[in-house]
Write a structure and sequence with these properties.
By secondary structure, this protein is an alpha/beta fold. Helices cover 31% and strands 23% of the residues.
């Protein structure tokens, strides 16, 4: 592996290829320091840990973290409602605060997080690493179609582009027509967006008869939704935009961009010098073996503003520390984010996530790739209907979809095939699961 250097002359190789034993020692040192500081400075954590019987001195190994209780989003909402506006989570002096960012609010009341000046520096640094590993270089032009302002992904990419010496087009979530005009006129080398919006732009190009290769794009990074690493979604993005498509992951409560694919495209690499990653059984809360899907739990190792210790993300992922062909030693989540616990559908005794439906729909010829899953009957649905767009919504198309779903899901939901363009498009995150 040949490593290049960042603009200031320092190589990313040192931190990204740390031997595993050194990386784990660094994590433990930072984690123990964080826990001791919060036990003194955070009324929220002090009360929470005391109620569970946990002591900061208990953390002698990374495995000891299981002694600390999980933090949930509902708990953070209650904390900030009782102690407005930020709860008792902000442990850094107010003079160091620089930005406030709420969660998207797509799953309920927003949770506010504070970034200090050092937090901004750290987020910029590891996001720049992630962009570098995907191939962004000084002098490149980036069309940043992640929403800006309160939604944090756009901000992190903006800062990281500056750090790398790239030219940033801060277009945010502007409509597809504006996006296409800038793609055509300014010729960016890379685009950042949600997968849904990337597919929408690709669809618009096809409808207008524009050859995506004429735009000069080379790569795209897509986040905010699960599914980029699904074969059908990646292929549609790459073919429709003439690029190589990379997965990138972030979470408002933790960091906007904390994991991304490398050129080997063998899973999301975590910035493990800043985050401790756990995968737990969602029922028992016990750690699962490497490579097994489970609930993603994340811990800040360096956050000053609003540190999260064992935050229950409700995302489903795998984790492996096995060597990556790219040479990086930081752990990976192969397949990316596989779904969300909130979106789990249990139908006729079978469990599945909307991403599994997506994997089917986006593999089928004659379908646009747009779909929704309609669920009737609450937690024990009496009917599940997959609604998918097709270029020719015939009876045969419905039969093909139904058979493919049966093979993939081991159950047969109802299907409804509708004409292309029926389902809405968005510049933000698509809502694939509709509980009626």
């Amino acid at each position: 592996m040949t490593w290049s250097t960042q603009p200031d002359g320092d190589s990313y190789e040192a931190v990204e290829t740390l031997p595993r034993e050194e990386l784990l020692a660094l994590q433990l040192s930072r984690a123990a320091t964080m826990v001791r500081a919060l036990a003194v400075g955070s009324p929220f954590y002090r009360a929470k840990w005391a109620a569970s019987g946990a002591e900061p001195g208990d953390i002698q190994t990374l495995a000891d973290f299981s002694r600390l209780p999980l933090v949930t989003k509902d708990e953070l909402r209650r904390e900030q409602a009782e102690f407005p506006p930020y709860g008792r989570l902000t442990v850094a002096p107010r003079s160091t605060w620089r930005e406030v960012h709420p969660s998207s609010g797509t799953t309920g009341q927003q949770v506010r997080t504070i970034w200090t000046q050092q937090d901004v520096e750290n987020i910029t640094a590891f996001t720049a690493r992630l962009l570098w590993q995907m191939g962004i270089r000084p002098g490149d032009t980036i069309q940043n179609a992640f929403s800006y302002g309160l939604w944090i992904a756009g901000m992190a990419v903006h800062y990281a582009a500056h750090r790398l010496g790239a030219l940033n087009i801060p277009i945010g979530g502007q409509p597809a027509a504006h996006q296409l005009r800038y793609l055509r006129e300014l010729g960016p080398r890379a685009v950042f967006a949600t997968p849904s919006f990337g597919l929408y732009v690709a669809e618009t190009l096809a409808r207008e008869g524009v050859d995506p290769r004429s735009l000069g794009l080379a790569l795209g990074a897509f986040g905010g939704e699960a599914g980029v690493e699904l074969g059908g979604t990646r292929r549609r993005l790459e073919a429709g935009l003439g690029i190589r498509a990379y997965d990138i992951y972030g979470l408002s409560e933790i960091a906007p961009t904390m994991a991304a694919e490398c050129p080997a495209q063998s899973g999301l690499h975590w910035a493990e010098d800043h985050f401790l990653v756990e995968i737990l059984d969602p029922v028992t809360g016990d750690p699962v073996p490497e490579g097994t899907a489970g609930m993603l739990v994340l811990t800040h190792l360096c956050r000053e503003g609003t540190p999260m210790i064992r935050y229950q993300t409700n995302d489903i992922a795998r984790y492996t520390s096995a060597p990556c062909p790219c040479g990086r030693t930081h752990g990976r989540s192969e397949g990316g984010i596989l779904g969300r616990l909130d979106d789990l559908v249990v139908y006729r005794g079978v469990k599945f996530y909307p991403t599994e439906v997506e994997a089917v729909v986006r593999q089928l010829e004659g379908f646009t790739g747009e779909y929704v899953v309609e669920v009737q009957g609450g937690t024990s649905p009496n009917q599940v209907t997959v609604v998918a767009e097709a270029t020719r919504p015939t009876t045969n198309a419905a039969t093909v979809l139904r058979r493919a779903l049966k093979v993939a899901l081991l159950t047969t939901p109802q299907v409804r095939v509708v004409p292309a363009g029926t389902l809405g498009r968005t510049e933000f995150k698509s809502q694939r699961l509709h509980r009626l």
